What we know:
Elements: H1 2-21, E1 31-39, E2 52-62, E3 69-72, H2 76-86, E4 91-101, E5 106-115
Antiparallel strand pairs: 1-4, 2-3, 2-5, 4-5
Amino acid sequence: MKKKHTALIMLFAVVTSLLQAGCLAPQGIIYTRVTQPHSLPSYHHACPLATKRCYVSLTQLKEPVTRMNLSVMWSNSEVRKAARAAGIQEIYYTDIETLSILMGTYKRNRIIFYGN
Length: 116
């Protein structure tokens, strides 16, 4: 009996750590909003704390029956415009925020740029 409890506790610990690490990030059927690291500074250089941020979004709308993909894309010029508008001279790192509604029928990926 004691071995069963130990095995269950170990399994629970492993699954919990995987969920917290984002490896098995939960995804809701109706609504999901998750922010994860997109790019991190290299370990070779110390990265100062960013004081400014800006957003660039990629929005996708799927027709739920035939699954035709309608999407809006961004370009490098949009990133430059958003960074300039936020007063960012140098980008240090980025996160990606995903918003999904009705199993991806509406999906928005937002890249968040941090810098000074």
